[in-house]
Amino acid sequence: MQKKGIIAAISFSVIFMAFGASGAFAAESVKIGVFDMQKILRESKTVEGYREKLSRQIDARKKPIQEKEAAARELEDKLRKGADMSPADRQSVEEKLANETKTIKRMKEDFDSDFQKTDRELAQKAVAEIGGIARKLAEKEALTVLLEKSAGGVVYSKDNVDITQKILSAYDEAMKKP
Q: What is the pLDDT of residues 4-18, one digit of tens each?
């Protein structure tokens, strides 16, 4: 118990010496801002555009897979209805079906991998762009510290220090420009 008291006293002393005694608080007022990256990612028109682009890419890549799946279903139907099929024909259709199934599986794996990669790249791009806008806005607003709500461990903040909407508006406006 006594160790905790000593540690607390030392911590307080270090903080006081670093900020209080140096006049940092007296010379310059600390102006803090916070923003919610997840809200910006959810509500941004620019990010919405990125999602639509990704959706179009997904749709374009799904079509060949769907065509292969339709061809595989036709082969399955042929096998079910082909009671009068010769053993050689049956084996040929079964081999084609097995090959189609393997091809479909590979195509889906490639699709999933490419989708995840593109999604990750677009998210990283958006986060980097938002970070740049947030820094510029923090400088413009003369903020001493700008924290991201979830990454900064912010448990509570008053609405007057939350600049999420300003960043969101500035981001979408900046990305409209060519």
A: 444 433 434 434 444
The C-alpha atoms of residue 116 and residue 165 are separated, in whole angstroms, by: 29
Residue 33 to residues 18, 30, 135, 141, 162, Cα–Cα distance (Å): 22, 10, 11, 9, 6
Domain count, the chain: 2
- In this structure, the answer to whether residues 85 and 130 fall within a common structural domain is yes
Tens-place pLDDT, residues 126-150: 999 999 999 999 999 999 989 888 8
- CA 152 to chain CA centroid, Å, is 18
pTM, two decimals, is 0.68
CA distance 14 to 168: 38
How far apart are alpha carbons 117 and 104 in whole angstroms? 20
Is there a single domain that holds both residue 90 and residue 8? Answer: no
CA atoms within 13 A on the CB side of 97: 15
Same domain, 162 and 99: yes
Residues 22 and 37 in one domain: no
The answer to whether 171 and 42 are in contact (CB under 8 A) is no
Among 11-15, 107-111, 152-156, the range scoring the smallest mean pLDDT is 11-15
The residue among 36, 29, 31 whose CA lies nearest residue 166 is 36
- The distance from CA 121 to its chain's CA centroid, rounded to whole angstroms, is 8
Q: 161 and 171, same structural domain? A: yes
Domain residues for the domain of 46 are 31-176
